[in-house]
# Entry
Amino acid sequence: DVTLAGSTYEFQRLALVNELSLDAQWGPVRLLVGRRRVIWGSGIAVNPTDLLNPMKDPLDPNLQRTGALMLPMIDVTVGPFIFSALASPRLKVNDWALPTEVQFEKTVIAARMYALVVETDVNLMYFRDQETKKHHGGFSASRFFGDHLELHAELMLREGGPNFEPPPSVPMCGEAIVVPKRAMTVTALGGARVHFDDEGLLLLEYFYNGNGFDAAKYNQLKDQFGCLAEVFRAASVAPISFAPQTQAMPIEPTFFVRQHHVFLNYQRPRLTRDVFEDVGVAVGALVSPVDWSAILHAELSYNFKGQSSLSVKGMYWAGEKTSEFGAWPGRFLGVVTLRVSM
# Structure
């Protein structure tokens, strides 16, 4: 699974190997070596327990396919249980996002136990980050109630504080923002999916205590917005990096600045079963419940007999200028996408 892309902004070319792997099976034992996206959590828009893969785009979770390097991954099925273990070193890449070095000193070691308990899919997870020397534990569960309602939850207990870099410190703009260090941090997600008879799907998720600023740190950052913008403008330096090392597509990115978020999405692949059978719609919102700013999005698509599809998507950043999403310099983004299947 390979992505080829070009952009006139920041970097001009991208050859991204999303997945490339070999696997073999001997009875109950399955071995996989290579690059593969493996997600053990139950979240749709976000996975708090995913320490391996590049982050999903919460506005379009199906877009991101890039996987982590497995050297190796082993699954063993024992009755109703599946036991998994893997070692995933980080990759250093060049300007094309092609791997140039395997960084074994930054390996993540992980293990999982899966079981079906009382009609509920349950995962218990353990992670060891060799770079930070920290341990993490995860849990996820998912269950259908009848034919239409699915409930899911995901929880991550992490050693240490938020796993992100603070913004650059500019002395003239104020005191440096320091990310606090904690003994343990709990990040969680809970959600529900409703499946309708017309193939429609409604998703609601709440993301709690993610990698972001609390109220005090956000207010400190907010007070520096104007000064930081002037400094970056004068220096002709972009405040946000779009380097290919993020292993993401060159599209407008989504960053979580605060810690709590709500995801709401409705999609229907067929408006009707006759005249508008090939027309699909999707609407949704990514909301910051602390200041009620949001990214609103809507998409209209047409499927050409399963061989290709054309979609038109619009996104609007709503909120006050000092809010999480309202602080973005742009307010509207339109995207037209043509996909061809061979």
Summary: The longest strand covers residues 99-117.
